[in-house]
Amino acid sequence: MIKPLPQPLLLSVVEGKVILQGETFDIDHIVTDTRKITASHNSLFIALAGPHYNAVHYLAEAYEKGIRMFLIQEEPTDTSSLKEATLILVKSTLKALQQIAAYQRRHFKGRVISLTGSNGKTIVKEWLSQILGEKYFHYKSPKSFNSQVGVPLSIMGIKEGHKLAILEAGISKPEEMENLETIIKPNLVIFTNLGSAHAEGFESKSQKLKEKAKLAKNADFIIYRKEHAEVAHFLEGNFADANLICWSDSVGVDYCLTVKQQDEQSKIVLLQPNLQMFTFTVLFSDQASLENIRHVIAAALSLGMTPPEIQKGLQNLRPLDMRMSIKQGINDCTLIDDTYSNDLEGLKVSLEFMQLQRPKRRRVLILSDFLQTNQADTYAAAADLIQQHRVDKVYAIGERITHLRDYEDLNCIFFKDTGDFLENLSLEDFRQDLILITGARKFQLERIVHQLEQKVHGTSLEINLNALAHNFHYYKRQLHPHTKVMVMVKAFAYGGGSAEIANMLEQVKADYLAVAYTDEGIYLRNHGITLPIMVLNPSPESFPLLFTHQLEPVVYSFSMLQQLGAFMEDKESAINIHLDCDTGMHRLGFMENEVEQLNGFLMQHPNLSVASIYTHLVGADDDHFKTFSQNQLDTFSRMAEQICSTLPDRPLLHALNSAGIINFPQSQFDMVRLGIGLYGVEVTGKHEPQLLAISTLRTTVSQIKTLPEGSTVGYSRKGQMPNGGKIATLAIGYADGYDRRFSNGKGHVLINGQKAPVIGNVCMDMTMVDITGLEVKEGDQAVIYGEGISLKELASSIGTIPYELLTNISSRVRRVYYSE
Ligand SMILES: *Cc1c(COP(=O)(O)O)cnc(C)c1O
């Protein structure tokens, strides 16, 4: 923070009222998420609240972690666990957070650069930061912190000494920008482009344009591209000439930047109004990157950098893989790959991310130099962060990072450069560790990731953890505030890999998990998952294991009830059980006429503690079965009430699966059971666009062949090429879960965005596709499903359901998790 806030000042900034006075101190740090609390010293916890989330429930947890000052908008019912805390009541905690940010912004003496537009904001921000780093000590907002909460939080990271700050502004509906503008007060705005879709919560493209341009209301300069005609027209009509900085492919503007494209690199020729010329060389040749780079050049020139200074920075620009990903490492390690981050804020975000992962033997950090000036300070702050996040071992790469030598507790080893590290690397040094690899592009830390990554063949299933959280919250919004959510993570979380997904579900505060078999539950417990877990179909032999791992069995028959009762006979404690009511599925469960007998049994076995009672709908997705489903629900209500009437405590009742949540919102009972919807498939088809695909199955092109007329491809000569053509062989087959029914043109894949149909029969480990007339090279990636290929259509093309495709993906396919 730029200006620490003593309590009286804080009160006036947020217009707050003290309702409990305990400790007081100058605030210099803001926390909004209890999971990310590391240094509690001088921290203020702001309890944000949304329609389905209220951090006021986490005050005690924050207190426990050392927080002593709180901003709240609703008085907690019980303050007994907050003895020495200071509680400050405000009308809206979000507003208060924004007020504190605006106050900090007013006291920042450097210049603020902000970005708006539909695409490219994050990448322009990252690149501009890399270029400015050659000359200025500056700040940039982490990742895509660009929302009503993200912008204020990122402003808190600006420090006194920064000369510049680059902040991204993102809006999703009208009026949000005015608010962001008052917080950011940018001096320079870059308007990247407008995009084509008018979605994003706006009525029309022109409304969107008008809203986005509000960011520049009080700015000294706005940078834009002449070729974006709508943007240019609007800005030129609504802003004074003196405030506009225009660039274009052609002359007559402030910066004429023309491109000469070559194969692997391009030249950008700058012609300034005074006719001075300069030629930049960049390692990109695609249109989007070349546009982004020219925004960066225009901004850097406007901020006083010379063309040679800019060129020096351009040499190190690489395509950004913006995503932080989690990968399977060698020797049972887990890798967090964040190899593009090059500043303190980035380090902080990735250390926080590390903190949220499942615990392993040690936390290891592999870190390079920061590309910033003001070194000693930066490294002191880094040392602080590393200590706070309890990193066990640091591998430090570079020359400037030797500043960390001053901090003996860090347990650091130093390497001159990445090559030096790799030469001295012994893979045996890493075992069951959680390893974060982060640093500047220039150091090519991806070479280290490559060494430490477990290598499997070329097929991977990528899981987007943000999309998963998005889908979870989407369903959560369909529910009453008090309805709990049990998430079905059976069958390896529908193929996605259960441990990482379960970990994410703990973070988004799911209430319960369910698996099919005991060993699936044990696997989760062994991977540090602490949520309650229901087991749908436990075998009696597994009761001892269930009991020791605190797994909760479903009981569906009298014989099972008897065996469980016998097993529990000599136990002092109780076990939570769940009762399955068969109301029409006729799979497992008690029938209505068995309830009386069931009640009698339960009364004699008080240590079988009924935690929930449920039923399962047979056709919740199909309006055709509406009456049948309603009858099931009615039968269930009767059965449940009859069982409850003899129980000491009322258990949770639940009936709805994903489709049921959409079609029977009035029957939520106490909990719902979310399955396929979480994984991005909306089976009723009613709300499909609101969900995000969470997984992408990819493989690589192993070989390309050009075949003469009359050739055939694959087993039994099924693939016919009467006119000849070109084929690509992909590293995926039915043993990986690519269904054999996709053979002979039934299925297709996407390679570089182009549709390539399957030719011939799918083999066990390989598949051939027809790429005649397409642009494909060996080593290219092919998307089997994911963006552009919908799982639902794919499934219906071979007469099956998305559930089957998802769960069929073989365990030999590597799972990669990422988070944006
Ligand atoms: C799998 C399962 C669900 C989830 O169903 P979806 O259609 O995937 O939402 C819910 N309840 C039970 C008992 C299940 O077995």
Task: Describe the protein in words.
There is one protein chain. The protein has 820 residues and is of the alpha/beta class. The longest helix has 19 residues, at 626-644. The protein is globular. The mean pLDDT is 91. Bound molecules: pyridoxal-5'-phosphate (PLP). Pyridoxal-5'-phosphate binds next to helix 23 and strand 31. Substrate binds at residues 587, 764. GO terms for molecular function: acid-amino acid ligase activity; alanine racemase activity; ATP binding; pyridoxal phosphate binding.
Main sheet properties = 14 strands, mixed
Question: How many whole angstroms does the radius of gyration measure?
Answer: 29 Å
Distance between the termini: 25 Å
Please give the share of residues in helix: 25-40%
Strand content: 15-25%
Helical/strand content category:
alpha/beta
DSSP, total strands: 40
Mean pLDDT, as a whole number?
A: 91
Q: Name the bound molecules.
A: pyridoxal-5'-phosphate
The shape, in one word, is: globular
Helices, by number, come to 25
Give start-end ranges of low-pLDDT stretches. none
